[in-house]
Amino acid sequence: MSQPFLLIQDLRKLFGEVAAVDGVSLQVRKGEFLSFLGPSGSGKSTTLYAVAGLYNPTSGDVMLDGRSILGTPPHRRNIGMVFQRYTLFPHLKVAENIAFPLRVRGWTTTDIARRVEEMLALVRLEGYGSRMPAQLSGGQQQRVALGRALAYDPPVLLMDEPLSALDKKLRDEIQVEIRRIHQTTGVTILYVTHDQEEALRLSDRIAVFNHGRIEQVGTGRELYANPATRFVAGFVGDSNFLMVSSVIAGPGGRAAVTLPDGSAFQDIPFHASSRETTTGGAELMVRPQAVRFSPGAQAGLPVKIKDLTFLGDTVSALLTTQWGQEFWLRMPAQEVGSHAAGQDARVTWNADGCHLFQT
Amino acid sequence: MLLTYDRMGGLKVVLWVIAVAVCIFLLVPIIFIIALSFGSSKWLAFPPPAWTLRWYQDLATDPRWLTAAFTSLKIGLLVTICSVLLGVTASLAVIRGRFPGRQFLRGLFLTPMVLPVVVFAVATYLLFLRVGLGGTLIGFVIAHTVLAFPFAFITISTSLESFDKSIEDAAVLCGAPPIVAFLKITVPSIRLGLLSAALFSFLISWDEVVVAIFMASPELQTLPVLIWAALRQELSPTIAAASSILVLITLVLMMIIAALRRRLAE
Amino acid sequence: MALPALLLMVIFFILPVAALLLRSVTEPEPGLQNYRELFATSTYTRIFLNTFLVAGITTVVTLVIAYPVAWLLAVLPGRKAMIIFAIILLSMWTNLLARTYAWMVLLQRTGVINKTLMHWGLISEPLPLVNNLTGIIIGMVYIMLPFIILPLHSAIRSIDPAILQAASLCGAGRWQSFRRVLLPLSASGAAAGALMVFVMSLGYFVTPALLGGANNMMLAGMIAQLIQSLLNWGLGGAAAFILLVVTLGLYGLQIRLFGNALAGGR
């Protein structure tokens, strides 16, 4: 990658003694759709607000196109933003809301009128220009807000959980719209969300936030297949964590592990930070989808089936190990065979659906 | 970012300067009279050449001031009782009753708040002249109750509205006679509303000037009437002393209300 | 249950006010001659004009001073706001005569304000600050400030700060954000407060009577004088009726425009 379009460098924001953002660095390409994913209080919104200029960071830098923008007040940054709450100006009509940023930029009336029509078409609200915000649904309001934020062709669009107040069905609809608008306009988007499905569906890349830091940046596939930390493994996709009694590292970033009941598993991928051999303090992450009942009764981890639920084409089962840990399995319905709740069974898993993490 | 305190920059300073100036403007007269009341200058020179308690002694030894204060207190307490009782009964009827015209009644009960007091004062004056209530204690109490009642009504009906009547019904079903249920269950629950209503009613009567000026006779004068009469003659420091005592009373009542609020919030 | 309150209101509020208004068309003889006289006599029309002028100026000045204070209060975190609120409430609840007395002393020819200004060499002889319209307006602004700060504060507080952040990101600087967003969004609160202050000022009696002196009578003072000193009950009733109609009319307008927010006036 040559010079990054948007660069966040070692950003820190203290609120009193508490670090809301604790050394975040990130490079964003032009035209990229990048999501900040994390639980609430993980610093993702604060980072976004620092890019917007609504917070001044305690230290660090934000550069756009090679120049620091920290000294520029928000109204001169020329950045677009859609907020979590509805922020249309309630006293202005829809068209006047979209015209607002153009009017303060001194555009001519004809240019404004033309641009407002373009924007209404972009967010598919043609004919709504003379409505008041209060007459619109939540989803429509956020679409107008999107039109307002894009009206002046900002190089970067920030979105702070814009769909969190909407119901599921509406959210799905608008996600498709956002995707389409990103493709037509080519604008660089930073998108904050706590919903992994939303992040996976929308973004080119995802930055996973936790405790004011970025745990990992990558495409959805990378995060799922190669989680760098236990947190990412737990946050992106479903996962089980099993206790491990010993680990013997082998070549090629793979290891052999022994579970508390003595069952041994070979060839488990493990992350760089857990390279040394250890006898405790490690956990084995297993994706429920990677677990299968063993065909024979001899090989695999002995478990008891506590519960077995049919979910149409898949089956979900809750299993208990001999040392009392519970974990989940999910598999195609036709592969279940005669297994039923209350029975003993043995399970194996595909080594690529597992990861070893140091705790 | 005009509504984000931390991001207002220089604007914050401007607003603070104006707000502090306004606070000074609001406080200066109050502090000033208190200072004057301890000053020794008969002609209200400021800063006073020396400090004295003389004006307070004058007040304490002048039977006119003492009688007027006692009259004000007596009227204020009677008004408080009448206005709270009327407030409770009227609120019960308007909030819990199911009869047509309740909204009209509510509006009617609040009208004295918006009518210019001077109109009410001259109207009452003329009526009382005819029926012989002018200059009487009962006349004072009636007129002040009309002025205080809307405040009692609005305060009590607000707290009664937020009290769930089914709790009182439950007490009745448990075997309590309705009147006992009301006194033991509902009244304690709305006690803050009742207390505020009582304090408001008292303060309104205690501070009331306009009606009092028309109502007063040489034999029956309230404290505000006496101050009013004194003010029209000369600006003597005795009035400063009397005013300071009124400020003190307001301060105490405000603190009582604040303390009550806090206790109820806990 | 509402009967006692209803009786009080009918007998001692509606009846006397109605009787007063009736006198305006029956005394000294049936007809509208009282109203004709009011509008044909220059003394009276001047008083009407003065009253509206003072109420208007008071409203504008109060609004301009109150806005920044209400704004600061709306964004200020916790404790500091409490202090400012306490000062506003203290001044609001301090006895009206006490406050007016303080201004009479402060503003007089030999008062602290004139002395200070002369001491600093800003003026060479005392400014006439009292017994004229200036005095009335200073006193009225002082009394009305809380009545506009409090509703305006809640109006500004109800605006989501994120809307102003959005304006900022849209490219609006401070002035643009203020003029195009904050001001329009708080306009209805400001207008409601202003209308209320204007109406209250129209019928105010005590402060204009004490700070305006004999030559600057206002409408309320005129009604009082016509009834009590001149015993011209018909003419006084007519003036009272005009005040009543204007007041209730403006309050009706207020309720239609901004919903029901009642406050007291003295």
Explain this structure.
The complex is a heterotrimer of chains A (359), B (266) and C (266). Chain A has helices spanning 44-52, 74-77, 94-104, 109-122, 138-150, 168-185, 196-202, 220-225, 230-235, and strands at 6-15, 18-28, 33-37, 59-64, 67-68, 80-82, 156-160, 188-193, 205-210, 213-218, 240-243, 246-249, 254-258, 264-269, 282-286, 291-293, 301-311, 314-321, 326-332, 344-349, 354-358. By secondary structure, chain A is an alpha+beta fold. Chain B is built from twelve helices and no strands. Chain B has helices at 10-37, 54-61, 63-96, 102-114, 117-131, 137-161, 165-173, 178-189, 191-207, 210-215, 223-233, 237-265. The longest helix of chain B has 34 residues, at 63-96. Chain B starts with 9 loop residues before the first helix and ends with a helix. Chain C is mostly helical and 266 residues long. Chain C has a single domain (36-258), classed as MetI-like (MetI-like fold). Helices cover 78% and strands 0% of the residues of chain C. Chain C has twelve helices and no strands. In chain C, helix 2 (33-40) crosses helix 12. The two termini of chain C are 29 Å apart. The chains are: A alpha+beta (359), B mainly alpha (266), C mainly alpha (266). The interface between B and C is large, with 89 and 90 residues.
Brief sketch in words of this structure:
By secondary structure, chain A is an alpha+beta fold.
Which structural traits does this protein have?
heterotrimer; B: 266 residues; mainly alpha; MetI-like fold; 2 domains; 78% helix; 0% strand; C: 266 residues; disordered C terminus
Provide the β-strand percentage band of chain C: under 5%
N/C terminus separation of chain A: 34 Å
Give the C-alpha Rg of chain C.
Answer: 22 Å
Average predicted confidence as pLDDT of chain C: 90
Question: What is the 3D shape of chain A?
Answer: elongated
Indicate the structural class of chain C: mainly alpha
Would you spell out the secondary-structure blueprint of this structure?
The complex is a heterotrimer of chains A (359), B (266) and C (266).
Chain A: E1 6-15, E2 18-28, E3 33-37, H1 44-52, E4 59-64, E5 67-68, H2 74-77, E6 80-82, H3 94-104, H4 109-122, H5 138-150, E7 156-160, H6 168-185, E8 188-193, H7 196-202, E9 205-210, E10 213-218, H8 220-225, H9 230-235, E11 240-243, E12 246-249, E13 254-258, E14 264-269, E15 282-286, E16 291-293, E17 301-311, E18 314-321, E19 326-332, E20 344-349, E21 354-358
Parallel strand pairs in A: 3-8, 3-9, 6-7, 7-8
Antiparallel strand pairs in A: 1-2, 1-4, 4-5, 9-10, 11-15, 12-13, 13-14, 15-21, 16-20, 17-18, 17-20, 18-19
Helix pairs in contact in A: 3-4, 3-5, 4-5
Chain B: H1 10-37, H2 54-61, H3 63-96, H4 102-114, H5 117-131, H6 137-161, H7 165-173, H8 178-189, H9 191-207, H10 210-215, H11 223-233, H12 237-265
Helix pairs in contact in B: 1-12, 2-12, 3-6, 3-9, 3-11, 4-6, 6-9, 7-8, 9-12
Chain C: H1 3-26, H2 33-40, H3 42-75, H4 78-93, H5 96-107, H6 112-119, H7 133-157, H8 161-169, H9 174-202, H10 206-212, H11 219-228, H12 233-258
Helix pairs in contact in C: 1-12, 2-12, 3-7, 3-9, 4-7, 5-7, 5-10, 7-9, 7-10, 8-9, 9-12, 11-12
